[in-house]
Amino acid sequence: MSDPSVAAASSAPDAAVKYVYDFAEGSRDMSELLGGKGANVAEMTRVLGAERVPAGFTITTEACVAYMAAGGEEPPGLSEQVADALDRLEEHTGKRLGDAEDPLLVSVRSGARESMPGMLDTVLNLGLNDESVEGLAAVTENPRFAWDSYRRFVQMFGNVVRGVAGERFEEQIARVKRERGVRLDTELDVDALRELTRAFRSFYDFPQDPQEQLRQAIDAVFDSWTGERAVSYRRINRIPDDWGTAVNVQQMVFGNKGDTSGSGVAFSRDEVTGAPEPSGDFLANAQGEDVVSGVRNTRDITELADVMPDAHKQLMEILRTLERHYKDMQDTEFTVEEGRLYMLQTRDAKRPAQAAVRFAVDAVKEELLTREEALMTIDADRLDALLHPTFDPSFEYDVLAQGVAASPGAAKGEIVFTAAEAVEAAAHKRAVILVRPFTEADDVAGFHAARGILTSEGGKASHAALVARGMGRPCVSGASTLEIDLGAEQVKVGDVVLGRGDRIAIDGSTGAVTLDDVPLVQPRVSGEFETVLGWADGLRRLGVRTNADTPDDAIRAREFGAEGIGLCRTEHMFLAEGRAEKMRAVILAADEDERRERLAELRPLQQDDFEGLFDAMRGLPVTIRLLDPPLHEFLPARLDVQHEVERARSEQSDDLEELETLLERVSALEETNPMLGTRGCRLGILYPEIYEMQVEAIALAFAAVRERSGEAPDLEIMIPLVDYEKELELMRELVVRTMTEPGLAEGKDFTVGTMIELPRACLQADRIAEFADFFSFGTNDLTQTALGFSRDDVEGKFIPIYIERKIVDRSPFDTIDAPGVGQLVRMGAWLGRKAKLDLQLGVCGEHGGDPTSIDFFHNSGIDYVSCSPFRVPIARVAAAQAAVRA
Amino acid sequence: MSDPSVAAASSAPDAAVKYVYDFAEGSRDMSELLGGKGANVAEMTRVLGAERVPAGFTITTEACVAYMAAGGEEPPGLSEQVADALDRLEEHTGKRLGDAEDPLLVSVRSGARESMPGMLDTVLNLGLNDESVEGLAAVTENPRFAWDSYRRFVQMFGNVVRGVAGERFEEQIARVKRERGVRLDTELDVDALRELTRAFRSFYDFPQDPQEQLRQAIDAVFDSWTGERAVSYRRINRIPDDWGTAVNVQQMVFGNKGDTSGSGVAFSRDEVTGAPEPSGDFLANAQGEDVVSGVRNTRDITELADVMPDAHKQLMEILRTLERHYKDMQDTEFTVEEGRLYMLQTRDAKRPAQAAVRFAVDAVKEELLTREEALMTIDADRLDALLHPTFDPSFEYDVLAQGVAASPGAAKGEIVFTAAEAVEAAAHKRAVILVRPFTEADDVAGFHAARGILTSEGGKASHAALVARGMGRPCVSGASTLEIDLGAEQVKVGDVVLGRGDRIAIDGSTGAVTLDDVPLVQPRVSGEFETVLGWADGLRRLGVRTNADTPDDAIRAREFGAEGIGLCRTEHMFLAEGRAEKMRAVILAADEDERRERLAELRPLQQDDFEGLFDAMRGLPVTIRLLDPPLHEFLPARLDVQHEVERARSEQSDDLEELETLLERVSALEETNPMLGTRGCRLGILYPEIYEMQVEAIALAFAAVRERSGEAPDLEIMIPLVDYEKELELMRELVVRTMTEPGLAEGKDFTVGTMIELPRACLQADRIAEFADFFSFGTNDLTQTALGFSRDDVEGKFIPIYIERKIVDRSPFDTIDAPGVGQLVRMGAWLGRKAKLDLQLGVCGEHGGDPTSIDFFHNSGIDYVSCSPFRVPIARVAAAQAAVRA
To answer: How many angstroms separate the Cα of B614 from the Cα of each of B545, B611, B867?
Structure first.
């Protein structure tokens, strides 16, 4: 390779590819190529000047990709480019790698496009060998430091690059300490360190040649990208495997050269509260690793002013400079070497919701950012934490089981197994958690009464999750290690057996379940949050409504800024106490006449519900969806009835005949795939009297509220699950006929529209639009049908495996599947508007509260999204971000 | 109205609309406007000359539509145009309506665009009144004829136009006959007829004015379009309500003027066999109504030669002329009036399948038609009858219940309630019908053993229907009036109670169920049919394959002309005897290792199956779909296991533990919506070892057959239920890896493709095509997902009501829903071919055997359709017709 013509020939095909960049060459825009760390160090070098940032160079992610593609071979040209960069580094620092007099030492660190803390490997103090260690000792006049550095390097190299088990080194250290009768590492003298270094070297073939050390270290970083830790981190954090990592080779600086040295981390603002004072920790006479490892107790960054006042002053200035430059809160690492401050790293600080909001508001006040910019620094999804109690983040607890984070917020209470127990406990002001394998319509009363819901089955879109989110109740679903035996009233988790009344705590924001008495932190909706929401409202184009079925929900949502109701599921009104029985009587009616009689009993109750809702939403639009679920949801489970029948038969009980009728009806209504069965407008076509009753109740409630208060909502009546335009035509006819009877005017007092939630409806949206004043995309059901995914069945079962096998990067029920379901939404929107230019378009699926999906809807010409009350503030912010982004 | 200026003013807006056409003005292309009868009479007038066809005029369907739109008011201008046409008719005939000397009499008949036999009203002898009856008597010198005609007219007018109940007239006739001591109508003399006429007139306000008679009669025909009979006929025959009917006013001719007169119907060829000799019936001295009513015994048309040789000769010539002109077999009505032959009607003859085939072949031989033309005269859907036994059409039987015509063919046998009983009965050569509420995988063994299947639930796409059609077993499904109590081994229908062993007969071509011992007619696959199929093969572009899972099916399908297997459902192989248990062991395996062990036991069995299939299909393509259904389909029902557990528990039985494990597994695999759950390639991703076993079995079978016979099929391995291209990529990898291990070559020995059966797959077909050599559209499941229709739940339940309410005109499972599902197929085909120009495109849903759907697929760029063996000949003909049509 020393013959340049040979090198040129062998690397000819890739001769043009630049794999190595000096820090001075890069910038923050290059993070795809240089990784986050490389790009930031380069940027820092630009901003703070070369003297503040130890010099070095970055080997690109492209080199790593080429290395992986070649099955672990460095691409042609790379070693030459590294050698050249090293030459330049040696020239810049005036030191040489492996120099026997005054050696250059370097760190070799990974740095992917996105931060993957602790997941990739790092080698420090590279360049030491038997010769240069003496040079380091001489030039620093600190043999112990030199030998400790050498010992650390041989250990780290052996462990990271050569895969020697860490404990083998630890055993030796323990042995030597024992033999020498010392307790602390720092008590080991030069001689002991020499002995240890020798011992460590015997574990593997330690390369004395610093060039070889560097080559091996670089390859080790590349290899660490495909290591188990990194792969699983990427899976969790949805980072693509094919990005690869960059490698940063940087001159070492030492915070462990005595009392005028030190290392630390510093945030430009308080990383928990967002308050404008910088925060952080440092250790004097220590390397960065010591600060992070937590072995020694760190000191607060303010104390740095006492110990090293100049460095502190410089650091404070630098933090401000960086923040102004990056226009975001910064998270930095620094080292002070004999009084001189070096900045090793900076990045945008991760922060909890309250800090994010505080920073955004302060940054605008300080004129650091515009409102638009400030808004974009907030992770909308995390704002959830501001709206629910959470586990105290500083409290450590044992996780009993891990489920799906199904509805945010934390709750504690006694275990109950039935809705009835929950209701009773609530009446006695006892806090309970409703624990069930899964929940059904019948359990809903228990949701109100319980502090939280815990299920062993189902996922984020299970019944339990949906209802809990709608109500703002914390819920952990699909905690599959729980074996819940309702008959025995027991929950088993491994050896732990819990019964009724045992206390349990759940965190619906993380999915954790624990027996520990974790303190709960109550949410604070700060003035700053209000400010941010105000900006959002000024910036967004998308309307934000709420999915609400009760006056309570509606009032809360309105407080959260909802601009109306986008989805009122009228069936929930049939589940309240005293109504389930009446609804059951409707379904069990022998003929239409009897059904109408029974419905007449329900009507005043439903009217009451509507009045409450309309009162709460006066002046705003309210979309009421007529009955949607299959009727059997209002009946008990077949198996239960069967048992009842058997019992009645054996006891020769009086209610046998009644139970047999019930069983017959339950069996007749049973469906193989209820999701695709007799529901939605199909019910309205089969049993028009049900829809008629609902529409009558709506009309009466509307008239009553308007008369009482002089103001009513903008009423929108929605027909669910339409496939054919004729279905909507028939149902529209029914609605208009029933509404106009008491004198309400179509178009003025109410409009009629449909939910678009079947693929066919999207494909035929132009025909359907002829009979619709509005569309509301039901993206939950559209996801189920377009993908053939029953959310009850797939979320817990194979979606996790699909994520693991990289078929999807997240559940399509969390974020809209843009290429499939999303295109159907766009097709529906386009065809609908093609047929009717002023057709109103909304989204009322769960996706209406998901920021990524909201961005998609913003760009699909949708007019508004509708989400559960607790997601309304998030949707407002996300909608504004979408507008700014566009 | 007599003032022309007033008439002109009132009819001004529609003055330009021509509502009335003389027969001489029309032609057969005008059937939309003139109705079928009007257009044909006009055409006949053109072809045969005015002297052969009684003159008259047609009032257009547009007039009827306008009449309906105006709520039963004649449109302006109509009455004037009718008056003008009547003037022309009077001039042509030299007679006047209502003339006291020699009156013109006319018939007023309906005639819709499509024939609706007997559904619309007709009035004969119009123009008679108290005066003109005497003229008729004088001019015919036949007072009895005149008074009988008058009596008939007053009766018919009262009944048809004025709605007087028919029995009131019959009572009078009976009374007069009683009083006069006569038995037959023909024995009534002039006096008696006078008395009757008088009595009839007293029932209503009979209009003496012939113009008024005509106006009322025309309106009555219009009104009959919306009568109950007509509406229900249209519903059954899928005729749109808004077509309206035309009205034909035609000079009466009389076949009842003595022995040189007569009436009859004549077909240009034998209407049952298609043999080239004309067939038909006639009655001397009779009107057409007498021939049709069946009151008198008609005589064969050949006897006409003896009675009226000239008329017979003319008729034979006319039939040939008409056939040559219409290029199709004709069905005519004629009258001979005093030796003169009049043709009253001609239309393309409806004919059973064998006659259709015979005619087509003869017509080509006779050079009457080209092959293309001949092929188009065949109703492909009816060819089914040639492939299955049917009820003897001449036998009259009582219908016990009416179900869905789920799988064609008729069968008789004793009732059995379980598959096991069916198998046992078959072993004793007893013919049985398997009767169940619905069927499941477990029942399939019984399908082989039974002569036919009868269910009370489900529709054309229920499990029973699908499996029965695949096997060619007759099946009636969804006979919902049957109450089947499996526990009591009873079937109740109203008061009838049937038990095991009772004989029953079903006709799967009509859906009829009867207790009568109906003779069965065996199918004849004639040489003519072979000829037609040969033409079809020469003309069609679409390939025709079969869906077959067993060597028997494959052999039969190949005999029927299948060009390969388009869909082999491998799961059916797991259901055969001795395999279900092994498959169950696979599913119950505790871990992957045990599962692999159990699978290894299944592999040789599956290999055997494949060898049989490959042997049968050597040299042709065979598409094998890897396991598709959810695993719980191979396990017993949860309820049954639960009962078993309870039994075992109470009996302290040894198998309790085993049963509890089974229950646990069954519960764990249970799904809310199995259609949208863990099935298709999701299984292959979760349990790759299952697919690996299947692919190994395929590879081994392929190699064995090739070695043994030197020839193998073109192997196509198909991955079901793909949503994401990554799924196919992973499964393709698995297939290729497993196949290439024993040395088979990708692309040469086998290809890999996917079923496109989810909306998302259609939308992302270009991405999916990257990993597919072929697509096969699974339009059954695509219909279920695109429309949100679970076929198990909707076919019996709301599709009939949807047809009744005119939301759909047929089940989307019978004929592809072109605007929805069809567009997804087209999108998938387009995107797939966009990405891969030579991508092979097939259809393997039930629609592959439906002529209307085949036409759609032909026009969507599909390469082949695949259908059950018995539909293969139909698909060949339908594919050729699609090609000719295009």
So the answer is: 14, 5, 18
